[in-house]
């Protein structure tokens, strides 16, 4: 592929900046826009970009902010109809630049947003499709487009009213309200729209986090819909003598355990609404951080304020386990890999044996696309690990070739990056570089536990739970000491 005006961005991997627009390399956006303005035949170059994979589609989106026209925007609509892993970014671009966006978005939602993939896709193998076009299958591509369009339309009252009349509530709640649905497409539309406005001067897309929640309230207890957690949830517990409250996730939904009152189960999307309300303040105190344990003190009299006390800082949702990584039951697994991507020892070998050779093949493909410095993060599909409930495997480069880890602090940076991409649920993490890497387990423990603590300190409303899987007794003791310090 040769696209003269934009070849530079693929030479140094600058296109990765465009994925979330949260990189300090902000000059990339402006440079893409300038390349578009100086292109001798932008239509031809955009057509070529949009016939390739998700990386090229991101560049096309940025280019259109530099120079657009109805004809050029039609090319992006056509690409969206073929399905794309970066559909949220494409939808944001169209919503900001195309005056016909509302009408065209509604037409696609009414038709169910079917996708007709690029014909060349059928000639590729599964791993090749994953690397070039992203991890989403045809059905997922359609869902990503649908969710992205719904989120963009919900920007204003007119759009929300149209959605209310034409989109079933169950679909809206299941696909949009739940934060991680379809790779977090709804959340990405809002974040990418906010970020792109820092670089371009176009009417902004400002999607409210609560817009769809307000539009489709689920059938749930009145106290939950009204946000009256103090009166409807906590008071009855205190009256019954409850002294401790804990949030516990399971595979069927989120459970709130409150003995002796019993169990209250909220299936999705009620758990999303419940989580949101639990982030508010009652009686002037923040009383709940998801997955942390709080003490409820005293008995409640009519008109009395509810008093709560966090048990200790150690109640951060960070846990230690003697289980192996692959036995954790977590949907996200994190471990340390070598610079060459060979999975021949430790947790890597176990994961490869369960997932199949495709896992190592995809890892090596990703590593070959960029620098292999310590701390680099690569996310891959779980392949056969999906049978164990695994959704993603994150590989952090922790060993330099042939062996060793000269900068273990980079491992903490890698774990921070992983956690920042997750929304809720359990993240299982193995120790890294403390075997073949030659780093003392105590130092690794301080770095990784420190990274997890900083994440929760900066995001007190996070719904994550971090579990360090440490079957080795020496590593377990090191992490226990780091967690208790």
Short description:
This protein is of the alpha/beta class. The chain folds into three domains: 7-215, no CATH class; 222-313, no CATH class; 318-484, Leucine Aminopeptidase, subunit E, domain 1 (3-Layer(aba) Sandwich), CATH 3.40.220.
Written description of the protein model:
There is one protein chain. The model is unreliable at 247-263, 279-295 and 301-314 (pLDDT under 50). Helix 6 (70-81) packs antiparallel against helix 7 (87-97). 42% of the residues are buried. The strands form 3 sheets. A 6-stranded mixed beta sheet has the order 8-13-12-9-11-10, sandwiched between helices. The chain starts with 6 loop residues before the first helix and ends with a helix. It has 3 domains: 7-215, no CATH class; 222-313, no CATH class; 318-484, Leucine Aminopeptidase, subunit E, domain 1. It has 22 helices and 13 strands. It is an alpha/beta fold and 485 residues long.
